[in-house]
Amino acid sequence: MFKALVYKEWIKLRLYWTLIVVAHLLFCVYLCLQLRHAFKLHDALAVWSNWVSKGYLFFKPAKNIPLLLGVVLGCLQFFPEILNKKLRLVLHLPLVEDRAVGVHLLAGLFLFTLALLPGLAVLAVCGASYFPWEFLLNFWYIYLPWFLGGYAAYLLTVFTLVEPTWRLRVTCLLLSAALLKLFYIDSFYDGWRRLLPGMVLLTVALVLLPLLSSNRFSKGYGS
Amino acid sequence: MKTFARTLLFASGVILLAHYLPAGYWLLSAKMRRPPIVYYSCTEKQFMFFRYTNQTAIRMDAHGKVYEREEFERILPIDHWMQLLRDGKLPDTVGGVALTAEALRRERLSFRIKPTMIDTPSVNLTPLLDADTGRVRLEMPEDFMRLGATIEFIHAQTNVVEREKSALFQRAFAEAGFVFPATVLGGNPSTMKPYDEGYYVADATGATFHLRQLRGKPDIHRVSSLASAEDKPKWEALKPIYFHVQEQDTREVHAIIVDKSNQAWFAVGKNYRLVPIPLQHYDPARMSLVVRGDLINRLISATGEDSVEAVVLNRDYGLVDRYTEPLVPRAATPAGKLARAIFPFTLRFEDVSTGYLGVFTEVGSRIALLVNGGLLVLMLVWLGSRKQLRLSRLPDLLAVAIGGIYGVALVFLLPKAD
Amino acid sequence: MKLLARLVLLVVGLLLLGHYLPQGYWLLVAKRWPHGPVVFYSCITKDFLFLRSTNGAMARMDRNGKTYSRAEFETLLPLDNWAQLARDGRMPKSVEGVELSPGKIRYERMSMRIRPDMLDTPEVPLHPLLESESGRVRLETPGDFMRLGNGIAFLSAATNAIETEKSARFAKAFAAARFAFPSTVIAGNPNILKPYDEGYFLVDAAGATFHLLQVRGEPVLRRISEAVPAAAKAQWESLKPTFVHVQEQECREIRAFLVDQNRRPWLVVGKDYRLVPLPLEHYDPAKASLAVRGDLFNRLITVNSEDHLELLAFNRDYAEVGRYNEDLPTRKASEAGVTARVLFPFSLEFEDDASGFMGFYLKAGSLGTLLVSGACLLGVAGWLAARKRLSWRRLPDLLAVAVGGIYGVLLIFLLPKTE
Amino acid sequence: MFKSLLYKEWIKLRLYWLLLFVVNVAFCGFLCLRLRHVFRVNEAVAVWSNWIFKGYLFYRICEYVPLLLGVVLGCLQFFPETLSKRLRLVLHLPLGESRAASIHLVAGLLMLAAVYLPGLALIAGISAFYFPPDFQSNLLLTYTPWLLGGFAAYLLTAFTVLEPTWRLRVVYLLFSAALLRLFFMEDFYNSYLRVMLSLAICTSLLFVFPLLSTHRFGKGYGS
Questions:
Q1: Cβ of D83 and A83 within 8 Å?
Q2: Which residue ranges make up each domain of chain B?
Q3: Is this complex's ipTM strictly greater than 0.90?
Q4: Does the pLDDT of residue C419 top 60, yes or no?
Q5: Nearest in space to A107 (alpha carbons), one of A12, A214, A205, A215
């Protein structure tokens, strides 16, 4: 049952997913080339000082990618389900509806993670080859909030899409926007350190929200 | 319809590739290229250079003799007077001119004119400082001047036009014989400067005026009327396209002026003496002009993609020495040659010559034509062999003929004609 | 499960509203806030003078509120306005026997400023260690960065590798000075636009203070308690600084500002690291910003917190010559602020002036909010009761209202009903 | 025929349209409030100088909003059509496939315009209180490329979504990205002054691309 559902999701998304992975990989490689370019045109010292004192990070342009990916993936996965009420069928499967939806979410989060990791690996390796390990720390501290933001974006998108009534959809939308903004406050080096645990907890807690709206969906509100 | 759509697709495709492929190419193969920094030694009476060769800086003279840092500084006492002073090596006089700290500081002079300064977007609103408030520090006014078909002052806080002040200035302009609209306006709207020179304005006829605000009152003069008899005609003939105003402690140079014939001028001293800068290759649209002055000389250098030219004037602006050096432009480097061979043409939308976006093309070398021809032939053969040489293929063939590799890429990427 | 989900929704909702509503409120009502007066110490009247901005207009006055014209004011502060005075020919030849020259005045001017967030801010733990005796007028950036954690290492930027030889030399020096790794404070001024290089002040794991310089490529590391005269030794050993600020000045008199383990501020003065305590009553390093301004005759210490201004004036050998306290109007006390603190039971910020780190900075409202929340609670409860919906399943909602006041009410109307 | 098709699209999209409209206007309103705030807490002279000499434009944040809206509307309008091959039916209407398709596009473009313009009007109107007329011309010259970018994004989205084969979809995606970047090279103000006309012409020409896709769609490639 579990396997079957995951497999179904994979079949549904694999094309888009591969597309995303490739695109992201290419983008990351491009960023690395730009870094290389910077080191070619200026002496290493200048680039380092720029990082240490001005907080220049070559991967900054990747900031909003997890967010975007989260939203896109959420839409791709659940729009079809909503449009022709396929989700109904799933929800009437032998296993409890929460479990069923949970599986869908797991599949989505899993694909999300896999989609980003290759690109991130490239960034990390490239960064490490030009900068000392402090940079990797920096990379971790700056990128992690964005990554969490991606997860949150995915969950909130599903939350919003699956919610059956329009009035609440708007509410969900507002809530999502308000919440996601927080993951993208700019900071320097490990400025996020003290906020991270809280944000992680928050993100984990968000898993419950899609279940809430799926529950309402199956109850058949607003239709 | 759909052939039109397809042709359009090819056209835009070629344009985009012509922009992105070369950009990508240069992202991979660009190297650090810095033109030499030119100095003029007032003791040795010769040019000295600070050159970057693969990331290391070396100091040499015109004959390629390499100098140690200390030696270099000793030969250029005025450029390194602080260091020499610290080491007690600063000569008391050079050519009879005493080198004292404050004199050196006061007489230091430096201007820099980049091509983008001459042609860049700007709002026609600018603060007209009061040049004579009786304070040491200049203060930002509360209104902005709009100088176009008329002259107006707009109060920022209230965002309304100040009627009487505008009228006052309007009258002053009329009396000075200023013909609206103003065509060129040059000033230095900053308070971080020793004094305020005000603005230089060219009116509709191209005549140059000097505008200042003194204790709230307008002070505008037709410069030719201020100039001495022998400069008067020069000023009247002058057709400026750019005024560069940058106040310096030595109040000697009012402004640097670039005119329609790409000639650069100094406006010097009390009676606005107009001194031509004797550069031979200066092109304001492509080269940056750097003026460095000191107690003894004025060194003017124009640096472009393919040459460095420098002239030295004495304090009376008489030509002392000149130097010209060709540089290897990027297009002439091996990477550049290769680029011009494989890319039939390149499109850029930004350019050093302007702050505006535009369409800037560079055509490839002759080899590129051969490449295109070759590709076209191959294409024909290939199509022929597959019995697809039909009229509907014309767009593809054209794309290859014009776009070379761009075209080929497109033929394989874009939908086939059916 | 569903209950849990709803709880999450409520909590998240409260946090978000607690962040955005106050923001929106201030976006609407914020005005240009009259920041505290600019303060001077006159070497003529031997007292403080103030430049106050009262609704746009500038007023120059002394502590008794006597106002001065711009010209008078400038003559009372010859050291601050010497350029203007000289221009108008009003410059006094000398003040109490010391004759004034622009050069001297400029040379003796000094100022440094310590903001609360400097004590607690993220930084990349790589520090350029300048060459302090290169024999050049201008300082030059070194080609490497110092990494000072459980050991000392130098990284060359060009090769991105550790310079083993140099690192070893420095490690030896550190061992010789009995430096106990890891270092807890690393304070320097990595910037070449300064008259000279003071190097770094370090505090080691044991709390001992060290002074590190690079002199012609060689490490110079002093354990300060041993570099000072015997009298000051004990003082230095007991100090255990938690924050040090270094900012080189033309007159090389003040070497560093530091805050010790009891949060007391000190100045480090002169060749033999003389410790000068700053006898301030209202200085909390985490809340107030402190400025030290000096001239030919005096040192003026200004402490600016949100609601208080404290001034302290020293003469040149750091004996107190003046003191002044003033309460400042705060945004909190303005009626906009008061309404805000009644309206909003709490407000949540993620950034704070007191720290460069992000965190959950929660500010509670005034007592008035309790009334508001209570009223809201009653209202909602009544409303529910009227519609016969007052069941235990409503508990989360009611809680939300009780805690969140208007936030809670808003949420209940926005979120899906519990059925 | 024409009317009825337009109406059909309107029925299909009005809810989403309303949402986009509200979002856009709300955002612009927020920006205006921010502007008001800036003028209340800063010296007007300083703000003006910032604008004139440093190119600070308070509405710069909404640079990519038109783009986003364009893409979203494009997807909303044409994804359903492609998923369930409904478009086929439309294409077999008496008035010929390209006319039918063009009507869909016109409908989309109209709605898009109806989303953009109120927001722009709002910004222009409010800023007139604080800035001299020069600012409006400035606004127009700076904002227009972004608007054109939005329309282009819509057309290119349709172009990509309607394309039946996956291989070409990828190609079109790259093509669109490459093209759209050219609308967002502004980093000061008025830079587009001299290429505005050509930019507008290019944008209008893009109209034919989706027709190409629909043609191929009608031909039933890749299925």
A1: yes
A2: 2-31+336-413, 37-103, 111-276
A3: no
A4: no
A5: A12
